[in-house]
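Run log, item B.
One chain of 92 residues. Sequence copied directly from the ordering sheet:
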Amino acid sequence: MSKTQHPITDELLDQLLANYQKPEDLIGAEGILKQLTKKLVERALDAELTHHLGHDKHQPVVSERALHLADGYPVVRQQLGQSAGLLRRQSR
């Protein structure tokens, strides 16, 4: 685990607890603790997947194989768009 600390400021806590009225708001089924845990896990998994795949979520990915197959099909090649052009320039 990283030794870098990410401070949780009083201002952040004030924002998170702005609508707190009863214990269930904090630790209940739809409480802030469950919401924070869900968001943190999703963010960590997204970061791990991005690192593993080498590109961000929803970023278009065009392989060299797809470009090669599309060479004889101008409509498909056109649909690959600028991603194809960028990949070609980077691979040369």
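Observations after the first pass:
- The chain is about 65% helix and 0% strand.
- Residues 47 and 56 are 8 Å apart (CA to CA).
Flagged for discussion on Thursday.
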